[in-house]
Specification:
Blueprint (H helix, E strand, L loop, with lengths): L12 E3 L8 H15 L7 E4 L1 H11 L1 H10 L6 H16 L5 H13 L4 E8 L15 E6 L1 H13 L4 H9 L9 E7 L3 E8 L8 E8 L3 H4 L6 E6 L5 E5 L6 H18 L3 E8 L4 E8 L4
Antiparallel strand pairs: 1-2, 2-5, 3-4, 3-5, 6-7, 6-10, 7-8, 8-9, 10-11
Helix pairs in contact: 3-4, 4-6
Length: 295
Amino acid sequence: MAKANLIARKENILWFKDIKKEDIPSVGGKGANLGEMAGNFPVPDGFCVTVNSYKKFLEDTGVGKQIFDLLAALKVEDTEALDTTSKKIRDLIMKQEFPEAIKKELLDHYNKLPIKTVAIRSSATAEDLPTASFAGQQDTYLFIEGEDKVVHSVQKCWASLFTSRAIYYREHNKFKHEDVLISVVVQIMIDPKYAGVMFTLDPVHKKFILIEFVEGVGEKLVSGEVTPNTYFMDKKTHKVSEKSLQFEMDTKMAEDVSLVGEKIEDHYKMPMDVEFAYDNDGKLWILQARPITTL
């Protein structure tokens, strides 16, 4: 992956079309990858509330010093103290007024989207990196509609930078809390018939493309709520080599996902972990991509 820009950009909000993979300091790993893919792959439209908005929130409300003082006094191996401090920080963030100027800019962008039901996802600056995986530590909110709910969900994403798990992981991996910032992705919500995850190099045999499908939203797969259809695809022919089925589904969809996976891997020049969805019209959408850190 190309080296990230060392300095964050000045904008408070950036459309995907204006973002590249080097923009991790501005929009986090998730946002940077969505921007990078938006012009090259079928990515639902959207924008990122940049780290500048989060920093402005900390400054305008004055909660930044309180947060980092609480963390400086915390011993993370004390589970009870960790949970108490985490809740205190998140409550503190949620009690604050959302900065008016950023709210106006956020809603101006939201109202320009052609579809008003959105997915709102956290994108931390230390997330989805080739060297560390913070994936899943911050919050995601699906099927959000309406101005007030959008604003509230963005603020909840900011607060989720301080879950117990996220605090502990940063301490354990020697990331300074002050150095890890958060962006928020606001993206048109795909109401999926099928969704899933693809590893462009499978972690088992290390020679196939591994694809897992579920019916409905992909979060069911991430949470382990359901058992997916599993396909090991030949990387050259994009035909099924092995499979394990839980429900009936057209195998061509797995082949089509596999072909797109090859193109994404070629684009990034490294194996990738990709989230995707098929809508009710049978169109394939790419929702996220990150480097595989477990190989």
